[in-house]
Amino acid sequence: MEKTLLDYLQRILTARVYDVAIESPLEMAPKLSTRLSNQIWLKREDTQPVFSFKLRGAYNKMSRLSSAELKRGVVCASAGNHAQGVALSAQRLGCRAVIVMPVTTPKLKSDAVRTLGGEIVFHGESYSDAHSHAAEIAQRDHLVFVHPFDDPDVIAGQGTIGMEILRQHQHPIHSVFVAIGGGGLISGVAAYIKAVRPEVRVIGVQMADSDAMVRSVKAGKRVPLSDVGLFSDGTAVKYVGEETFRITRELVDDFVVVNTDAVCAAIKDAFEDTRSILEPAGAIGIAGMKKYIAEHQIQGESMIAITCGANMNFDRLRFVAERAEAGEDREALFAVTIPETKGSFKQLCETVGQRRITEFCYRLSGQDDAHVLVGLATENRSDSEDITRAFASRGFECVNLVNDELSKEHVRYMVGGRSPSIQNERIYRFEFPERPGVLIRFLSCMNPDWNISLFHYRNHGADYGRILVGIQVQQFEQTAFDDFVTELGYPCVEETQNPAYQLFLR
């Protein structure tokens, strides 16, 4: 590893990135610093010309190609930020760039690539599909393939961020928090920091539903994921790189895994300090830093989070705003059962007391009991436990839905839709690609004898849609239905036994 450090130190010191990239600012985040009782600094890679760090590695790789290779042109696979980096680099170097993008890519990102002169080829529904097709094009048309992360020159380009951090902050640093997708960014940053100031801790952060690197390091070998969550599309990688895995497992000090709510809260944190709107991948470092500080009870230290991207679809802001409150422990959601008797509603309100109500949904559901969905403003996570106990002390049965995805994504918008007469209903949460024809495919694959009894969809401005579907299936058709779900191939979770569904929709 010592030889590796020396090799990457030389590569990073001689990297050619500043023809296209800026030395991004390292800025204090005053509100976060006060709230977390530490000195919090943000390395603002979201201020790059393509609003992401990716152009560093792409340009460093492409600028080292021979004139003959540049004349042939390059090809890459990407759903966004790497594509823009390659397209801008090709524009500066005067070469052809073919960009293979999944058909689910948001128009914002494909338009940005097209504006920079990239030739877009849409193929497949995932990065993996696009990657395979890009490799075929490279071989067929003799183009140079520019990998998004698993290439020493790409890694070295990203490593210039670590070089800038140490130059910009020459005082003690406790930790640097870095988002991980395929591992190119953290590999480069860790290589430089550990070569120059090995006492600085490098902490990797991944999404709970896209944690390929964390699993691989624990297993001691690269572990592929069958599915990845798409909320943080910039880090949604099923299989980390061979070189990035080797570097990360040796140099990264620790890892943090965060969820969607925590990232939404981090986007809000960054906005309040910078007035910039980060994309989910760009805010993962902040989310991981907050969780790490809370878990280790750290105070009075200097900590740095790399804000690595700001290519955010405007339509996604509604979803982010809704989930940020839960991510900050400022909202808790409960299913409360009260007797259908006089005075029960008043007792419920008395139990809530002076707390701010964020949501209240009720509908008569029977002669004896009523189920109420209650959203309340909270100060911290322990508040929800106190509220649960308060409801119980009044004799109200209460289910805490703080961590229930079905409730947060669907049920809270559907309360009042109970239908006790429906028989043999199974409930699934699906993630569908956000493109025309997907629903038709779903219906075409489904047995025409199965009846759709519930359907809920809300557009979140992402490249995928979150769908809640109820289907009436007889017991003897169980195997056929399971085969249908498998053949469909979309990520899904069965929620038939979820208490929120049982209380409010069944």
TrEMBL record:
UniProt keywords, alphabetically: Amino-acid biosynthesis, Branched-chain amino acid biosynthesis, Isoleucine biosynthesis, Lyase, Pyridoxal phosphate, Repeat
Pfam families: PALP, Thr_dehydrat_C
EC number: 4.3.1.19
GO molecular function, one term: pyridoxal phosphate binding
Alphabetical list of CDD domains matching this protein: ACT_ThrD-I_1, ACT_ThrD-I_2, Thr-dehyd
Pathway info: Amino-acid biosynthesis; L-isoleucine biosynthesis; 2-oxobutanoate from L-threonine: step 1/1
Cofactor requirement: pyridoxal 5'-phosphate
SUPFAM superfamilies: ACT-like, Tryptophan synthase beta subunit-like PLP-dependent enzymes
GO process terms (BP): isoleucine biosynthetic process; L-serine catabolic process; L-threonine catabolic process
PROSITE patterns, alphabetized: ACT_LIKE, DEHYDRATASE_SER_THR
Domain (ACT-like) ranges: 332-403, 426-497
Reactions catalysed: L-threonine = 2-oxobutanoate + NH4(+)
Family in the record: Belongs to the serine/threonine dehydratase family.
Annotated PANTHER family: THREONINE DEHYDRATASE, MITOCHONDRIAL (PTHR48078:SF11), THREONINE DEHYDRATASE, MITOCHONDRIAL-RELATED (PTHR48078)
UniProt subunit comment: Homotetramer.
Protein purpose: Catalyzes the anaerobic formation of alpha-ketobutyrate and ammonia from threonine in a two-step reaction. The first step involved a dehydration of threonine and a production of enamine intermediates (aminocrotonate), which tautomerizes to its imine form (iminobutyrate). Both intermediates are unstable and short-lived. The second step is the nonenzymatic hydrolysis of the enamine/imine intermediates to form 2-ketobutyrate and free ammonia. In the low water environment of the cell, the second step is accelerated by RidA.
Name of this chain's protein: L-threonine dehydratase
Species: Rubripirellula reticaptiva
